[in-house]
Amino acid sequence: FSGVNVGFQDAAGTNPRSAQVRLRPRFDVRDDNGNIQATLRFEIGDINFGNGGGASGQTNLPSVGQNTSAPGGRTGPGLGGGMGTDGVNVETKWAYLDAAFPFGFPGRVRAGLQGWFLPKGIIVDDDAAGVRIYGQMKPFSYDLAWFRPDGDGTTTLDDNYDFYQAKADVALAPIFNPGVYYIFGRNNTARAETAGWVGGAETHYIGATITGKAGIFAYDVDF
């Protein structure tokens, strides 16, 4: 990638540019009928070529780039793109268990670190720790979830940031597929350590989406 003239403030003759690599290996295991499955997804990410040092400094080269410490030193071990490339940069992106309800109930439970996405990413498109219950009873599908993106855990008070989600979609016809969702957010993180506990802030999100297709025409509307 290149950042030349981004912001139009580059010094004369500069050419800010770099190369980056991001790897996301994923491992899935399941039983024979798919009733229980587990996913583990790593990320070796945001490694800029040349940034950070390896497990030891350059042995046969002069100090270059960011690794300017004496031989044996280590600069930016979380980066790992410099000489040696021995960085501490393997991250856990997803780690969840996904299981079907027993007795034929049309739903599954997914618990752990997982992706959280709402239409077009208008409200959220990220990874979070939580629990989802989702399923389908044609033409209806539903998705109930609780996610906790932030929490302190240092007091006996509820000082967490929680989101509760309800989402429903109806596949009535190829040309008309409406859906609605609601999210309630309860943020006690900033309140827990203050005197005169009165509870945290609350947020509400509501959205609607309609998609459809007829022949070569397709549409997608979100609110």
Characterization of this structure:
This protein has strands at 20-23, 26-30, 36-48, 90-100, 108-117, 125-137, 140-151, 160-170, 177-187, 201-214, 217-222. It is mostly beta strands. Strands 1, 2, 3, 4, 5, 6, 7, 8, 9, 10 and 11 form an 11-stranded antiparallel beta sheet that branches. A hairpin with a 6-residue loop joins strand 8 (160-170) and strand 9. The two termini are 34 Å apart.
Label this structure with key terms:
mainly beta; 11 strands; 223 residues
Question: SSE order in H/E notation?
Answer: EEEEEEEEEEE
Rg over CA atoms, rounded to whole Å, is 24 Å
**End-to-end gap:** 34 Å
What is the tally of helical segments?
A: 0
The computed structural class is mainly beta
Q: What share of the residues lie within helices?
A: under 10%
**Uncertain segments:** 65-72
* Number of DSSP-assigned strands: 11
Shape: globular
Question: What do the pLDDT scores average to?
Answer: 83
Q: What portion of the residues fall into strands of 2 or more residues?
A: over 45%
Main beta sheet strand tally, sense and closure:
11 strands, antiparallel
Question: Quick recap of the structure?
Answer:
The protein has 223 residues and is an all-beta fold. The protein has strands at residues 20-23, 26-30, 36-48, 90-100, 108-117, 125-137, 140-151, 160-170, 177-187, 201-214, 217-222.
